[in-house]
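ok posting inputs for the NDP job
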Amino acid sequence: MNSTKTILLNNRPSGTPTTSDFKISNLELSDLKDGEILLQAKYISVDPYLRGRMTDQKSYIEPFELNKPISSGMVAEVIESNNDQYTKGDFVSGMLNWSEYQIHNGAELNKVDPNQAPLSAYLGVLGMTGLTAYFGLLDIGKPKEGETILVSGAAGAVGSIVGQIGKIKGCTVIGIAGSDEKIELLTNEFGYDKGINYKTTKDMNAAIKEAAPNGIDVYFDNVGGEILDAALANINRFGRVIACGAISLYNKTEQPTGPRVEITLIKKSVLMQGFTIGNYAQKFGEGISELAKWLTQGKLTHKETIVEGFDQAPQAFIDLFSGKNQGKMIVKAD
Ligand code: NDP
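and the output
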């Protein structure tokens, strides 16, 4: 193997990304040195947060560089090893480049077992998005039995798991998603009690009030913007708002303003807290074993939208913004 296909950032997107913001290129591969492994990409996670890394702005994670590979969570197979810790045939997950093949020093990778769960699950329910649902809801939301939880982006990777954990904890869960098909999925597969299609609902504030006549105790926010405004209008006293994501704003060239939140937070003693999942790195083991236990017990189900073909990674990423995925969006690389 002396060269590999790689996907580079071609332009910094303005507004919604397009395929021309990416470039497929051939990169030379050098010989394996001592301590190195050769990896073949198996599954690529495409995630909304990658949009932020495409903008040249200081954040909790470095921006991508132009003409350099995009990277994200991936599962790969070790196909050659000069590193004692890895054997040919091992599968690993970690932050890797969007390259069909790559040489790696083996640091910060986790071995994953295809006999314990399908490899793709390590990018979803047993990976970053499952952990985000788990720690965001339980550590910040602290739901109590009998409370009402509202979740936006409810049919996606994080949201579909949040709703199910909410049910495990004995809560009423209401989901917001962008199509009637997704609303059916929420109630039929993910155990949500009710769903609201935000694309066909004119008055979100009234729709939430109707779905939750006693108000919302916990709002798990994956989208921000006007849906957050409507959720806050229905929040109960001592409510908790988990600011997990704001996908409705990621492609905006100018940030819209909304109603001010402080009076609501004060009057109703509401806690609103943001987080990034890296905050919980020390506790990932606990989260994964709990999620795995619920999966084995049949208390948790997970859905994936698998897009075939390495070259499709940019389009799969772009499709997150028009809601083409149900559950976790993943690219099967080979
Ligand atoms: P999803 O699987 O939920 O995919 C994104 C979904 O967002 C789409 O399917 C679409 O569903 C919805 N969406 C897209 N545009 C809009 C819009 N303008 N308004 C409302 N909904 C929209 O992605 P993830 O589960 O991976 O991520 C969900 C959120 O959580 C994102 O905001 C992400 O950035 C955030 N996140 C945060 C983490 C953290 O550490 N804080 C870690 C992981 C994710 P629909 O059809 O319903 O519109």
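notes: The first strand starts at residue 3 and ends at 9. Residues 128-141 form the longest helix (14 residues).
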